Amino acid sequence: MPDQTPTQRSGAEQAPVEEDLDAALRAARAGEEGGFLVLWRTHQPMLLRFLRVYGADGPEDVAGDTWLQVVRDLPRFEGDADGFRRWLFTIARHRAIDAGRSRARRPVALVGDVTSLDGARSAASAEEQVMDRMSTDDALAALRNLPPAQAELVALRVLADLDVATVAGIVGMSPGAVRVAVHRALRTLSNQPSLTAVEVT
Q: Do domains 16-102 and 114-190 have the same CATH topology?
């Protein structure tokens, strides 16, 4: 079943607001299953999209390993919902890198489902403007041609929907360096023959 955007959800199915996620996080840390379930339902779709960029044969397996570590270490976690999201994707990134190292030396195959981002936010960012102008095949071909480091940054910004500061913390770069790298990646994507001109600011 495709991911639903916030505008497609209604009533009880609406995405939790940040305050609700903070409450769910507190409940999960206290051992309440309901709180953990809210965290899982909120983050799992974007986590799977992010993990697909590493070309793992089974992103669900890497996600499962990620959540197992979260369950194990959650009682010691300190922070709010934003901090949890940053922590979750840091764990996922490390797990994905470990999984990649365990495979035979193969090039990274980027297969992010970028078309699932349509309509995710009311105002299209520069990233979304580029992605929205690409067909699925165009997007996959373009992402495969990006340098792996740039592809990872685009995945964290677009597929995982993380802000620049959070991405910078995960990859160990300054926010300015992340902005420059993503800007260059978007320039590369926007120059694909199948795209019309996109101004990247």
A: no
CATH number for the region 16-102 comes to 1.10.1740.10
Task: Give me the residues of the chain with pLDDT under 50, please.
Answer: 1-13, 104, 112-124, 135-137, 195-201
For residue 73, the 8-state DSSP code is: H
Say which residue the tokens 């193969």 belong to: 106
CB 18 within 8 A of CB 79: no
CATH architecture label of 114-190: Orthogonal Bundle (1.10)
What percent of the chain has a predicted confidence (pLDDT) above 70? Answer: 63
Helix, strand, coil % over all residues of the chain, rounded to 5: 70, 0, 30
Exposure class string for 105-139: b at 16+ Cβ within 10 A, else e: eeebebbbbbebbeebeeeeebbbbbbbbbeeebb
Phi/psi of residue 144, nearest 5 degrees: -65, -25
Dmax (CA) of the chain: 53
Evaluated on CA atoms 44, 95, 125, 173, the torsion sign reads positive
- Indicate the pTM of the whole model: 0.66
